[in-house]
Amino acid sequence: MSLSPETRRLIDELLASFPRPGRVGVDAVLLRSCLRERRVVGADVALVRDLTVPSPAGGVPVRLYHPAPDGPAAGCAVFLHGGGYVVGDLDTHDHVARLIAAESGAAVVSVDYRLAPEHRFPAAVEDAFTATRWVADHAADLGVDPARLAVVGDSAGGGLAAAVALLSREDGPELALQVLIYPVTDLTGYPVAEDTPYPSRITNGEGYFLTSAGMHWFARQYLADPADAEDFRASPIRAADLSGAPPALVVTADFDPLRDEGEAYARALAAAGVPATTVRVNGGLHGLFGLGALLPESRRAELPVVGALRGTIGPPRTAG
Q1: Other residues' Cβ atoms within 10 Å of the Cβ of residue 200
Q2: Is the peptide bond before 117 cis (omega within 30 degrees of 0)?
Q3: Where's the Alpha/beta hydrolase fold-3 domain (predicted)?
Q4: Would you call 256 a catalytic residue per the annotation?
Q5: Omega of the bond prior to 226 within 30 degrees of 0, cis?
Q6: pLDDT over threshold 70, residue 319
Q7: Catalytic residue among 155, 168, 200, 235, which?
Q8: How many C-beta atoms surround the C-beta of residue 234 within 10 A?
């Protein structure tokens, strides 16, 4: 499988215009500024409202997207954005949250968790879990059904979603589904060595926008101590026991350094008795989700996600 000309052109454009994490003079402030300039316009959603979740850290901003606020209580997806734990916010991923809400029929609560390096691990996990529990506790106020909740995340957000799914086994709420889009599941093994258990970190480690060197830089910003990479909240695949986690959909991309660890996590879930489905997007790359209007490969990532959410937590079926 090779990249389509359209995908190659997009990668070349991104490489030319986006600072490379880890290079001299590139820091979190510069990366955040450049990402905000590349905002994508999303679909219309009936109700969009900014809220704040109380937390010991002073409050977690969230944004509710409700496709049918006047109808029966909808299921809800708690969405955790990507960005290497360093960049991204409610606005940069607004189009993704809108897409999920508009096409799945479920409400979405997007979470603006604290970012590194100002707030290192486990701040992002704590915010993500706090927000998820808050959604369940305030379901009636949000117009959602607490019995139909899911966690969804892309990249670093996929790793956070996986961690929330594991934490929820003991401290609730019960989740119907976890959707992990090219997730970070293992922050160990950086810098990448030849004996890595994830060959895609080498074969896709350079030239496809996200690089393995960039992932190493993100990990250094996020982890307070390199030993934190062994904590399952940072590396869900390192959990001693994965049993009892909610069913999972794991989406990976052909030309992504994170491809193999995402698929390894799906296999580990299945080995623990957790229903797990893997969809690999042939010809796809990291960061493609939400760009369906530009790339056919992106649409091949979006359709299984919104389909799984619609079938699991989407609008209630009506009789007749």
Answers
A1: 22
A2: yes
A3: 78-288
A4: yes
A5: no
A6: no
A7: 155
A8: 26
pLDDT in tens, 275-316: 999 999 999 999 889 888 778 888 999 999 999 999 999 987
Q: Which of 253, 320, 284, 309 is nearest to 4 (CA)?
A: 284
Q: Domain residues of the chain, as ranges?
A: 5-313
pLDDT of residue 318: 57
Q: Could you confirm whether 55 is annotated as catalytic?
A: no
* Cβ atoms 77, 152 nearer than 8 A: yes
Q: Say if CB 249 and CB 305 are below 8 A apart.
A: yes
Point out the catalytic residue in the list 89, 145, 254, 256. 256
- Residue tagged active-site, from 81, 95, 216, 286: 286
Token code pair at residue 51: 């809220």
**Catalytic (active site) residue 94:** no
* Residue range 103-129: mean pLDDT, rounded: 97
The one-letter amino acid code at 151 reads V
Q: Residue 13 pLDDT > 80, yes or no?
A: no
In the structure encoding, which two tokens stand for residue 234, read together?
């940072």
Decide if 50 contacts 89 (C-beta within 8 A): no
